[in-house]
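Hi there,

I know you've been waiting on this one. I reran it after we fixed the sequence typo, so this is the corrected version. Both the input and the resulting structure follow.
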Amino acid sequence: MRILSVVGARPNFMELAPVDRELAKRGVEHVIVHTGQHYDAGMSNALFEQLWIPAPDYDLGVGSGSHAQQTAAVIQRLEPVLVELRPDLVLVYGDMNATLAAALVAAKLQVRVGHVEAGLRSRDWTMPEEINRVVTDRLSDVLFLPSREAAENLGAEGIPADRMHFVGNVMIDTLCWALPQALALDAPARFDVRGHPYAVVTLHRQANVDDPTVLQELLEALTRLADHIPVLFAVHPRTRTRIEELRLRLPTDRGLRLLEPLGYLDMLSLVAKAGLVVTDSGGLQEETSFLGVPCLTVRPNTERPITCTHGTNRLVQAQRDAILAAAERGLARRSPARPVIERWDGQAAQRIAQVVCDGERFELDGGTAAQPREARRAVAIPQPLGAV
């Protein structure tokens, strides 16, 4: 059996790592294609090393560009690889442009597609990721679901249940594997915040950083928050560029510290001990829920509503007062108890391998009973804090 995985950016690497380990245990030929969508080659290589992922067999070198440019480049450069190798299955991960492009190429070549992290929906069509999710799921033959509501989303779109496998969340597999290493690094001590409540911040989405008014509002909120607790802001290159373009000067002497993008282990080390996380990242919503760390997601919606209904995540508007009020509540509810989310147990990749290699099925039976349809509808898209 020959399995080919296509990955493009940081979240994909965390999803790939446990799957690669499980396939290796079974002696499966696993070909890794890196599209090169990740803009920072050094950071990309570091993540492969930290997560013990083998060097990619192919690097397409796509780089940055518009959505159309990235998607087209992946299609053009991946097609000859698939024609040459003819894999039994192409695995795609998450919701990147590379995810959609790889699924499209494989489907047109009549190669089976498996989508890891299938069925997530924000219902926000202004997000390019939502388009990628919906189209990728439609093209995929095998859908690996991280949570129960994903099945309802797919069913509502007419996708047959026999394509779905409720395997759990592979991001949590990587977190469980890496957490002892991350804690041993003791990043809070290196950043001189150990023993004190502190906040970790990441912001990179277009809606938050490309609009100067919104970005200034968010930076004002972080500056005010830093009057109360240290704020460690890992600044995404896109966000740093916008700050420089606006010629904004942030008062870093008031507890707000601007950091370069952090490696996975350093970031996990900080997040695990944080009093609060402020983000617009999808992966951090999941990681903080598993770790029991209060999280404020600066978005009007989320494709991961389970992190709000069963985890520690709360949506918040991109407004200074709303963020500060939500931060105060979040800091007050930090608890050593961790939420328990079904099949977020570090075994998702093992289940994926069982499906791929052994033909097993992981249906929605067993475990916690599904909520009534009316209840699921009520919680599918939580309202942001501070909403009018």
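Quick highlight: The mean pLDDT is 90.

Best,
R. S.
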